[in-house]
Design brief:
The chain has 215 residues and is an alpha+beta fold. The protein is 33% helix and 40% strand. The chain has four helices and seven strands; from the N terminus they run ααβαββββββα. The chain has a seven-stranded antiparallel beta sheet, with helices on both faces. Keywords: Signal. This is Cyclase. It comes from Streptosporangium oxazolinicum.
Length: 215
C-alpha cells in the first residue's frame, strides 16, 4: 500500500521538474541582447548575492545541496594549463550546452582577478532545447593556482565551484573541480546529472585542446 504513492512521486518528480524548467527558461528564438544580460546579472547579484556560499539549505526550504568532485590529468605544465583552463572563453564549444559568453566586468583587486559574466547555454529538457542564461562571477587566484566560480540560473539554481591545479612534475598537471549544486528538490537530480556531465565534457575538451597545442 505504501509503495504505490512513493512510486507515483518518483514518476511525477522528473515530469514536474521538466515542466518547471520549460516554463521559466526562454526559448532560442528569444535570445537576449548583451545589455539585457548585463541587467539580468545585476538583478541576480542584488537579490541573491550568488557569490556567497551559504550553509546547506534546510529541508524545510524545499531546496537541496549536492557536492561532487571530478578530476583530470593533463600533459602540460601547470601554469599553461591554468591560463588556458581559467579562461572561460576557451570553454565555448567544449560541450554542446555553452553557446557564448558575455563579459560584464573584468577587474583585479588585491591580487585577485574578478570576472563577471553570463554564459548562454542551450540545455535539453525533456528532449526540447531551451536557452538558459547562467549569471556568474569568477575569482582567479593565479599565484595560488586555483579559481572559484559561482553561478545563478533560473529557477534559482546555484553552483559553487572551486577548481584547483596541482603540479605533478614532468610537465603534468592534475585539475580537480570541487562542485556544489543547490536547487529545489524537484530539480536537484537533473541539475547534478547535467552539471557533472557538462563539466566532464569540458574537462575532456580542454585536455585535448591543450595537449594538441590548440590552446
Amino acid at each position: 500500500m505504501t509503495k504505490l504513492p512513493r512510486l507515483l512521486r518518483l514518476l511525477v518528480a522528473p515530469l514536474s521538474a521538466a515542466a518547471l524548467l520549460l516554463t521559466v527558461f526562454s526559448t532560442p528564438a528569444r535570445a537576449d541582447t548583451d545589455p539585457v544580460l548585463a541587467a539580468q546579472w545585476q538583478i541576480a547579484w542584488d537579490t541573491y548575492r550568488f557569490y556567497e556560499c551559504l550553509a546547506a539549505p534546510l529541508p524545510i526550504t524545499g531546496r537541496s545541496q549536492v557536492k561532487r568532485d571530478i578530476s583530470i590529468e593533463i600533459n602540460a605544465p601547470v601554469e599553461h594549463v591554468f591560463d588556458a583552463y581559467s579562461n572561460i572563453n576557451n570553454h565555448i564549444g567544449m560541450h554542446s550546452f555553452l553557446k557564448r559568453v558575455v563579459t560584464h566586468a573584468d577587474r583585479t583587486e588585491a591580487g585577485t582577478r574578478y570576472v563577471d559574466f553570463t554564459a548562454v547555454e542551450d540545455i535539453p529538457v525533456a528532449g526540447v532545447p531551451v536557452t538558459a542564461n547562467t549569471h556568474a562571477q569568477q575569482r582567479i587566484h593565479r599565484d595560488d593556482l586555483y579559481y572559484e566560480t559561482d553561478t545563478w540560473t533560473l529557477p534559482n539554481v546555484v553552483t559553487h565551484q572551486r577548481i584547483v591545479f596541482e603540479d605533478l612534475g614532468d610537465g603534468r598537471t592534475r585539475v580537480t573541480e570541487h562542485l556544489t549544486f543547490e536547487a529545489s528538490i524537484l530539480l536537484i537530480d537533473f541539475t547534478v546529472t547535467n552539471g557533472v556531465s557538462s563539466h566532464q565534457a569540458t574537462q575532456a575538451g580542454l585536455k585535448a585542446a591543450i595537449e594538441s597545442g590548440e590552446l
